[in-house]
UniProtKB/TrEMBL annotation:
It holds the Pfam family PG_binding_1. It comes from Candidatus Anaerobutyricum stercoris. The lineage of its organism: Bacteria, Bacillati, Bacillota, Clostridia, Lachnospirales. SUPFAM superfamilies: PGBD-like. This is Peptidoglycan-binding protein. Residues 335-395 form the Peptidoglycan binding-like domain.
Length: 410
């Protein structure tokens, strides 16, 4: 019997979080690009309905296999006033909700007649150069390099889409959380146990924050934060489809990283697939999947590979947010300035997302606020609880900043 995955497409104006409604999307298989399987339209939130698409058996992604574990589809997108776009090779896994979140360029910014984003093979299936081993802790003081004074989660990272010395490669400004979701969707399978996803995502985030903290590439004369080369860093693909299971984990722990006692910098947590490439004292991706199957927690998986003294730390500073999370979940009955700030941000978001109700910004979390929060969570693929936890607070902040910034630019 055929197996299926799901796909939902969300379109925003490039460089913002402003939705692109009324766009048409045609979906076809990469093997038969002229045979249209689905025709969709984006709603007032810039989103399509969720559709089911055929996918290979889920077992192909649960054990190392020569069989491709995902099906591939082309998405042809047209929106009035925006440059037409094709995403080629969107990857659909059985039983998984794939999220195609895409920025659209206004026609005034367009460089060509039709933009094409080609998504390459997953790193666990395709052939990519293995990581060049580095020390997990950089000897910063010995080199005299400039580093940050504390660990900061950046608002953006600059991704150099190629090897460090490739001057022809493009630099992309990518929101930090979106970068992590993209890399995780390139490096691990979303079908794996949640503890395995968390362990791998923590390694990915710690690796990234080490590059940020040490100013690794800028101290070498480059104008970017990190590269998309698997030999030097982690795989990142422009236009990559992400997955709900990965999306939820990243939103929940995006300020975390790995530490060792008496070491200020995030650990450069290197890893490999553990099948084609082995890496002693580093995380094995397939090995971590087996440990997750055995019931180990994310922290236990990380300690198995990096040693018993590794622990999960969190950054106090998150860049690009108007106000920090209060440290506890806001729910019906909560009140105060943090509630009022959240209400004001939701009202500003509602100006661009008309499906959201406007509410009274009175600092009192009542039933109307709960309803607005639930609508927000539904639109932005969060668990619909009506409560503002860590993930929801910072997602509200992200969307608020995105819609406010483009208004200021205009």
């Amino acid at each position: 019997m055929a197996e299926y995955g799901q796909l939902k497409i969300s379109l925003v104006e490039s460089g913002s979080e402003r939705p692109v409604p009324g766009a048409s999307v045609e979906i076809s298989s990469t093997g038969e690009p002229d045979q249209i399987l689905e025709r969709l339209m984006t709603d007032s939130s810039g989103q399509t309905e969720t559709v089911e698409l055929e996918a290979p058996p889920v077992e192909y992604s649960l054990e190392p296999s020569e069989e491709q574990p995902y099906s591939e589809y082309n998405l042809r997108i047209n929106a009035p006033g925006y440059e037409p776009l094709t995403v080629s090779g969107a990857q659909i896994f059985s039983g998984q909700l794939a999220l195609q979140n895409q920025g659209m360029l206004r026609l005034a910014q367009a460089q060509g007649e039709y933009r094409i984003l080609a998504i390459g093979p997953h790193t666990l299936y395709g052939e990519y150069p293995p990581k060049i081993a580095e020390n997990e802790i950089k000897d910063i003081q010995a080199t005299g390099e400039v580093v940050l004074s504390r660990v900061v989660v950046p608002e953006f990272v600059v991704v150099h889409d190629g090897a460090p010395g490739d001057a022809t490669a493009t630099n992309h400004y990518v929101q930090y959380r979106d970068y992590i979701k993209n890399v995780a969707s390139c490096e691990i399978y979303s079908t794996w146990p949640e503890a395995t996803l968390r362990a791998n995502i923590l390694a990915i985030m710690s690796f990234t924050l080490n590059r940020v903290y040490t100013e690794w590439y800028r101290n070498r004369g480059y104008d970017f934060t990190i590269t998309s080369s698997t030999a030097y860093d982690q795989k990142w693909i422009d236009g990559k489809t992400i997955y709900e299971s990965i999306n939820l984990v990243v939103d929940d722990i995006f300020n975390a990283y790995l530490s060792r006692p008496d070491v200020s910098q995030p650990i450069l947590a290197q890893y490999c697939d553990g099948r084609r490439v082995t890496c002693p004292n580093q995380l094995s991706q397939w090995g971590s999947k087996s440990l997750g199957d055995d019931g180990l927690s994310a922290e236990e998986i990380l300690q198995y590979y990096y040693g018993s003294d590794i622990y999960i730390n969190t950054a106090d500073m998150i860049s690009g947010v108007p106000a920090s999370w209060p440290g506890y979940t806001l729910t019906v009955g909560s009140s105060g300035e943090k509630v009022r700030q959240m209400q004001m941000q939701l009202n500003r978001i509602a100006e661009d997302y008309p499906a959201m109700p406007t509410i009274r910004a009175d600092g009192i979390f009542g039933s109307a606020t709960k309803n607005a929060v639930e609508t927000f969570q539904r639109i932005f693929n969060l668990p619909v609880t009506g409560q503002v936890d860590f993930a929801t607070w910072y997602k509200i902040s992200q969307i608020y900043v995105g819609v406010s910034r483009i208004a200021e630019l205009n």
